[in-house]
């Protein structure tokens, strides 16, 4: 079978009202890649994620997921999404870690079907994968920020996605937890062959995970990771240089 790109954007442009944000973006993400999406504040990273997730429709260009036009794409569970920790769950919600992760199983299977033994074995497998097996019966609310973020990653993985998209996965967690989250993402990509798309400002940690880096500032460029230092990335040099090249 032909190995189709997981995500393919062709000439995608997006404007909020009269404020252009993305200009003629072309981007291909292939299976098995770990792509880091970086760029200055307001450069359109979240907008680009929303377009890939189908939450925003570009004014021009096309979006294909697994070789299919996004407007016809039905297998939403194949796209796992972990948004910034603060916005996606009320941490006081009275549910155990295992229950939260099991709710990810519903996403792929429909809300009217009871979870089966095989669903729960997948839940237990991902809990083990993210290192939360021992905490599975604990309430989510008593976990640390880093542990909660692992729960949300496990919940997304429970649906058996083909790509995991993470928006600033380390925001609000301490240094040790950041390092351990990046180690987990590295393992998911290298051992479990999970395709990753990660938006992050935290470029040092990101560099330990990604296989390719994409800089965005209205235009897009792919940088050879080895030739771009975290300091250059922080300053958005790569993206600015490209914008100049495109404008010239
Ligand atoms: N709903 C909206 N309506 C109008 N403008 C918006 C809207 N959402 C975002 N914008 C603007 O679009 C631009 C890109 O925003 P976006 O959130 O995609 O950037 P970002 O790169 O993710 O930023 P950050 O790194 O700060 O999270 C910004 O100038 C932002 O103010």
From TrEMBL:
Domain ABC transporter: 7-246
MF annotations from Gene Ontology: ATP binding; ATP hydrolysis activity
CDD domains (UniProt xref): ABC_Metallic_Cations (cd03235)
Keyword Transport among record annotations: yes
Keywords: ATP-binding, Nucleotide-binding, Transport
Keyword Metal-binding: no
Xref: PANTHER family: METAL TRANSPORT SYSTEM ATP-BINDING PROTEIN TM_0124-RELATED
Similarity comment: family membership: Belongs to the ABC transporter superfamily.
Official protein name in the record: Zinc uptake system ATP-binding protein ZurA
Species whose genome carries this gene: Desulforamulus hydrothermalis Lam5 = DSM 18033
Lineage: Bacteria, Bacillati, Bacillota, Clostridia, Eubacteriales
Encoding gene (name): zurA
């Amino acid at each position: 079978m032909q190995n189709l790109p997981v995500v393919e954007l062709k000439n995608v442009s997006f404007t909020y009202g009269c404020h252009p944000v993305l200009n003629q973006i072309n981007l291909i993400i292939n299976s098995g890649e770990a792509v880091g999406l970086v760029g200055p504040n307001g450069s359109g990273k979240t907008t680009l994620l929303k377009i890939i997730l189908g939450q925003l429709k570009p004014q021009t260009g096309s979006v294909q997921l697994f070789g299919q036009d996004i407007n016809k794409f039905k297998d939403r569970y194949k796209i796992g999404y972990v948004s910034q920790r603060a916005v996606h769950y009320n941490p006081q919600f009275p549910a155990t870690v295992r229950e939260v992760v099991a709710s990810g199983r519903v996403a792929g299977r429909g809300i009217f079907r009871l979870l089966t033994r095989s669903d729960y074995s997948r839940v237990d497998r991902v809990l083990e994968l993210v290192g939360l097996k021992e905490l599975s019966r604990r309430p989510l609310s008593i976990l640390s920020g880093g542990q909660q973020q692992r729960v949300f990653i496990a919940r997304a993985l429970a649906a058996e996605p083909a790509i995991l998209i993470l928006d600033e996965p380390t925001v609000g967690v301490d240094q040790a937890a950041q390092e351990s989250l990046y180690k987990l993402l590295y393992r998911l990509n290298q051992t479990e062959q999970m395709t990753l798309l990660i938006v992050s400002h935290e470029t040092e940690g990101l560099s330990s995970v990604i296989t390719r880096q994409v800089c965005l500032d209205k235009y897009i460029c792919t940088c050879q990771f080895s030739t771009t230092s975290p300091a250059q990335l922080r300053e958005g040099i790569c993206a600015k240089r490209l914008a100049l090249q495109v404008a010239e």
